[in-house]
Amino acid sequence: MSESNGRRIGREFRTEELAREAGIPVRTLRFYREKRLLPPPRRDGRVVWYSEDHLARLRIIARLLERGHTLGGIAELLAAWEQGRDVAELLGLEGAIAAPWSAESPVPVTRAELRAAYPGQVDDDAVAAAQKLGYLRGEGEELTHVSRRLLDASAQLVASGVPLRDVLDTAVGVRASAEALAGQFVELISRHLFRDLASLTPAETARLTETVQRLREVARTVVDVEFGLAMDRRVQAELSEVLTHLAVRSGAP
Questions:
Q1: Residue 46: which H helix or E strand, with range?
Q2: Mean pLDDT in residue range 188-198
Q3: Average pLDDT over residues 188-200
Q4: Quick one: CA torsion of 84, 85, 87, 92, rounded to 10 degrees?
Q5: What range defines the domain where residue 109 resides?
Q6: What average pLDDT does this structure show over 202-219?
Q7: Which of 10, 46, 146, 169 has its CA 20 to 30 A from that of 103?
Q8: How confident is residue 141, by pLDDT bands cut at 50, 70 and 90?
Q9: How far apart are CA 26 and CA 19, in angstroms?
Q10: pTM over 0.90, yes/no
């Protein structure tokens, strides 16, 4: 982490590193620069350095391409957004919006390791179900799991006596609930904070960047508290049913 003219510079990337992080060929990165879809990188002698804000811009471009926008249309959109504002402030807002919420890193895993983690429960159907959820990628014996923490958590559930198939079935519902929660937060923030981005002044853009960064922790807090309260209610209700059932069986008044 370093400072430049009072502005924070996060992690920096050489050309090949940025292309790898963004999942694009180096020639595509250079093409985007030629088309001015990316602002100039920082130069240090003959070496160019890209920032995390450049990476955020590349991820936004990728999302817009996925939605059917052309490169020409994306260039016009970005140019209109940058009109009359400081590019550093704009990129800071892009970075705050597009920065990943998840800190998960993919982990290589073989079928043999999966069979060891879930004894007697790993077959083609289970692997296919995990692939459909996006937990596993790849084919054959060499696979990649999206998250070490999810891999360990599911293994602990299975070790505790929960069948792997039930874990995967439950994950479908958890995924749907998580998508619904994310949708509610995105809709709320978009409706109230992102109504007219094109008219923001540089100062307003900077304030919005700080707000978006703060709201990340707010969103996590709300979800954590609500989940804890919901678990309290459900566990207490389940315990009450169990105790009532026991009392009936024992003939207690």
A1: none
A2: 75
A3: 74
A4: -150
A5: 102-195
A6: 82
A7: 169
A8: confident
A9: 5
A10: no
Statement to judge: residues 20 and 46 lie in one domain = yes
CB–CB of 243/217 below 8 Å?
A: no
Q: Are residues 122 and 53 in the same domain?
A: no
Residues contacting residue 225 through CB under 8 Å, at least 6 positions apart: none
Lookup: tokens for 99:
């920065």
Task: List beta partners, residue 8.
Answer: 3
AA identity, residue 237: A
* Whether residues 34 and 107 fall in one domain: no
What confidence tens digit (pLDDT) does each residue in 18-69 have? 999 889 999 999 999 988 888 889 888 888 999 888 888 888 888 788 878 8
Element containing residue 104 per DSSP (H, E) = none
Asked if 220 contacts 182 with a C-beta cutoff of 8 angstroms, the reply is no
CA 126 to mean position of chain CA atoms: 24
> Phi-psi bin for 205: left (phi > 0), alpha (psi -120 to 50), beta?
alpha
Q: Return the exposure string of 186-216: e unless at least 16 CB atoms fall within 10 Å of the residue's CB, then b.
A: eeeeeeeeeeeeeebeeeebbebbeebeebe
Q: How far apart are CA 115 and CA 140, in angstroms?
A: 14
